[in-house]
Amino acid sequence: MATARKSRGESRILRYLILGTWALVCLLPILWFLSIGFRPRTEVITPEPIYWPTFSLDAWRLLLSDWPIAKYLLNSVLAVGGSVVISLILGIPAAYALSRYEFRWREDIGFYILSTRMMAPAIVAVPIFFLFRSMGLLDTIWALMLIYAAVNLSLVIWIIRSYMLDIPKELEDAARTDGASDLRILWEIIIPACLPGIITAAVIAAIFAINEFLFTLLIASTANAYTMSVALANFTGGSDGIIYNAIALVSFIAFVPILILVILIQKHLSRGLTMGAVKG
Amino acid sequence: MRTDAPSVPAGGVASATPDRSGNPPRRRSPALRKAFPYLLLAPAMIYLLAITLYPGLFAIYQSLFVVKFLNWTWTGLGNYSQILQDREFWAALGNTALIGGISLTLQTAIALTLAYFAYRDPLIRGWRIIFLMPMLFMPSAVAFIWKLAFNDGRVISDLLMSVGLVDGNVDWLASVWLARMTLIVADVWQWTPFLFIIFVAALQGQDQEIEEAARLDGASWPEIFWNISLPMMRPVIVVAVTLRGIDITTMFTNVFVMTQGTPGGATETMSYFIYRQGFRMFNFGYASAASVLMLILTIIIAQTVVKRAFHSGKK
Predict the structure, then answer these.
(1) Best residue in B23, B137, B158 to probe A by mutation, most A CBs within 10 Å?
(2) Where does the pLDDT of residue B6 fall: very low under 50, low under 70, confident under 90, or very high at 90 and above?
(3) Residues 66-105 of B with CB under 8 A from A
(4) Where mainly located (chain A) (predicted)?
(5) Under 8 Å between Cβ of B179 and B263
(6) Residue percentage of chain A with pLDDT more than 70
(7) In chain B, what are the domains?
(8) How many CB atoms lie within 10 A of CB A264?
(9) pLDDT at A7
(10) Where are the domains of chain A?
């Protein structure tokens, strides 16, 4: 009895030691990076690191005066928002077909869709670059919208498909005997019933799109199409070196909305991240 | 189109049979019925084919040429024979496997350990939010965090010095293994949460009664985890690790921001190799040949590992 309690107490200490350590591993770099965003440039790169810097809004002023940060933010929002809409419009009917109909090659088509997620951006980077160049879309947010939608389509389809599979068949059978068409059933029954799945898919697609780097790097060459993610890599303003405090601020500006979105879909996160394969 | 679809759902057998409820049967030709799911899929399929099949074919075609800006000179399989003898190509392949393999092993082990300790903890919601945070930063931001911490800001060296592990400043980009380690640290820091979230959800979703029963039989928590929970969550682990593994093989951003492949190509990954050949040296034909080889590898991996992983995950 006594020993059992003792070992349980020890294991709790061990547990909090391990979890606490990892929490520090997660939080300390973030807090330190936040402090980078609010210190003067002279205290960022120094022979001896400065842990208790003077507070300064230099980076904030620099961002507002020298960099079209609002434009980058707007580009991100438009390209990401547009891409999510495109992938939902294309993805919902596809998910419906995969989850509700028996037809030839269904498994193969489903797997092909899944496998497009496996393709490294670098593999298609050169052809996509030439494709957009020939269409005159380089350095536009239209190109970003199209490419983000393509990158995310497989995940959107698989997540929504997984949620649609959970909807009991009886629900639509009743409507079908009442003579509703398949498209009306999709619109009026299936979509409302799997709304959590659609929202999860949209949020995860948005996060992946905000993060996308390689395609954006190749497509965007001026402020015309720079997004937050790639703009970071360009705060390396020539003779000034890398402007870390501005980078830190921009990182946090992008971090906050993502954190809020993720908290909203917390319960569905693991299912979304595994493209519906794991029901959390 | 042949007509041997195994079983068409409600109402599919068709127009001839009157509807159960006595409503007028929906007038729709059997051909349209049969085509309907394909029509629903068509827009998405066309879109996906446009960004996978078209670039694939384009890459194969372009890989047969030496491309210097607008000049395409036919070279047949020249790029391929050259690339297979290119030590940088093999190094990039090796680096991707090595850095990716170590990184994936570490984050799987850490995520499993954390999930084991966290999933029964009353504070699990709090832990989850905290552990999730690194993943919510843009990858380019994370790359800059670690670039500053390791190289430019010397914070890591300073901390290691203060506990006496090193004396003097460490030049992380000077040594092959130190440079690789910085990439591994950045990847593990950012992506352990991905696996952690999935593992915790899987553990929480397991049948509590089995645990209770084992507990009553006198099994300890580590025993339960090792003998019951872990085998039960195997399909989940396989899916999660496969997805993460695939993303790791495409590693680009950290290399681009942190090391640019230095020292001497020791941190150059496949993605960075293709980028450098194509967009730094403008050897587009050569880059395309590398893309085609990587595509073949991807297809092999997808057909074997991924297909199996997702079948076991569906249970």
Answers:
(1) B137
(2) very low
(3) none
(4) membrane
(5) yes
(6) 95
(7) 87-313 (1.10.3720.10)
(8) 13
(9) 55
(10) 2-57, 59-273
Contact A273 B4 (CB under 8 A): no
Asked whether the beta carbons of residue B307 and residue A15 sit closer than 8 angstroms, the reply is no
Hey, are the CB atoms on B26 and A179 less than 8 Å from each other? Answer: yes
Q: Helix-strand-coil percent breakdown of chain A, rounded to 5?
A: 75, 0, 25
Three-state secondary-structure class, residue B74:
strand
Between CA B163 and CA B293 the distance in angstroms is 46
Residues A58, A40 contacting (CB under 8 angstroms): yes
CA distances from B210 to B112, B116, B206, B215, B235 (A): 20, 16, 8, 8, 18
Selected for mutation to probe chain B from A28, A101, A161 (highest B CB count within 10 Å) is: A101
What are residue B217's phi and psi, to 5 degrees?
Answer: -75, 0
The two structure tokens encoding residue B141: 């931001």
Position of tokens 């905290």? B130
Residues from chain B that touch A96, judged by Cβ atoms under 8 A, are: 40
Residue A258 has its nearest CB partner, among B110, B136, B221, at B136
DSSP characters for A205-233? HHHHHHH--HHHHHH--STTT--HHHHHH
Lowest mean pLDDT among B6-20, B45-59, B156-170, B225-239: B6-20
Among candidate residues A228, A268, A257, A248, the one with its CA nearest the CA of residue A60: A248
CATH of A59-273, one of 3.30.310.50, 1.10.3720.10, 3.10.180.10, 1.10.274.10: 1.10.3720.10
> What are the E-state strand segments in chain B?
65-68, 71-74
Interface membership of A265 toward B (CB under 8 Å): no
Closest CB to A102: pick one of B7, B19, B51: B7
Query: Are A187 and B40 a contacting pair, CB within 8 Å?
Result: no
Point out the residue among A36, A114, A150 whose CB comes nearest to the CB of B47: A150
CB atoms B313 and A277 under 8 Å: yes
> 């066309």: which residue's tokens?
B46
Determine, for residues B40 and A96 on separate chains, whether the beta-carbon distance falls below 8 Å: yes
ipTM: 0.89
How many angstroms separate the CA atoms of B180 and A199, rounded? 38
The verdict on A275 touching B (C-beta cutoff 8 Å) is yes
For residue A119, list chain B residues with Cβ-Cβ distance below 8 A.
Answer: 52, 295, 298
pLDDT digits (tens, 9 = 90+) for B64-101: 999 887 788 899 899 999 999 999 999 999 999 999 99
B243 interfacial to chain A (CB closer than 8 Å): yes
pLDDT at res. A32: 94
pLDDT at A30 over 90: yes
Contact A131, B58 (CB under 8 A): yes
Tell me the two tokens of residue A221: 């060459």
Range with top average pLDDT, A182-186, B181-185, B243-247: B181-185
Contacts 24+ apart (CB under 8 A), B77-81: B79/B285, B79/B286, B79/B288, B79/B289, B80/B289, B80/B293
Chain B residue with Cα closest to A170: B10
